[in-house]
């Protein structure tokens, strides 16, 4: 069971002789009501964030491409444009223990401490609060599965600024701003434009059709299980 057509294409490319039955099941998220009771404006104040900020909730792994965001913020600083990216997530990566320190050192070297704010690992209700009130979700990753953060942004109707990779295009059907994974200037342009278009604090609630999205996911998953139990072919 794969989460996207993009992953299915990779599967066929890397395992051309595989005879496995394969099904694509795209998941959807349903934000729990218990995590939405907190006032986002209180969370924003607690972390000393401005009203206009971009949210980047990715772990600090190299392929998550935080360095490109630092480069984009440096471009905006030279332009005299004030933009804040708020990041959260773990800094631990056993594959490359020093990566976070390298990025953080670059942030300090370029004088971007007030522009790039890393909050560390924060409570999930705070994640939802920051997402709901953000100017846009930012995901610069070089590689993704069916992105949970993108699904969560979709569930609230949050604007998205995403790396131009196949799965992001598939997951958003063109409903986002896209930039190349090495194109810091394009990302800087998107951040500047989205910031200029923002009009004060906007707190979003779950979109009205999210129950339908989750039901479609559940039906797709159940069909895959029935097919597996009945030994029917998938692809």
Structural class, by secondary structure, is alpha/beta
Helix and strand sequence = HHEHEHEHEHEHEHH
Name the poorly predicted regions.
none
Question: How large a portion of the residues is in β-strands, by DSSP E?
Answer: 5-15%
Total count of strands: 6
Output the number of helix runs: 9
Q: What proportion of the residues is helical, as a percent range?
A: 40-55%
Give a concise summary:
By secondary structure, this protein is an alpha/beta fold.
Strands, helices and their partners?
Elements: H1 5-14, H2 40-46, E1 54-56, H3 66-79, E2 85-87, H4 99-109, E3 116-118, H5 124-133, E4 136-139, H6 148-156, E5 160-163, H7 166-172, E6 177-179, H8 184-197, H9 210-230
Parallel strand pairs: 1-2, 1-4, 2-3, 4-5, 5-6
Would you give an account of this structure?
With 235 residues, the chain is of the alpha/beta class. Helices cover 44% and strands 9% of the residues. It is built from 9 helices and 6 strands. It has helices at 5-14, 40-46, 66-79, 99-109, 124-133, 148-156, 166-172, 184-197, 210-230; strands spanning 54-56, 85-87, 116-118, 136-139, 160-163, 177-179. It has a 6-stranded parallel beta sheet, sandwiched between helices. Strand 4 (136-139), helix 6 and strand 5 (160-163) form a beta-alpha-beta unit. Helix 2 packs across helix 5 (124-133). The longest helix has 21 residues, at 210-230. The protein is globular. The mean pLDDT is 94.
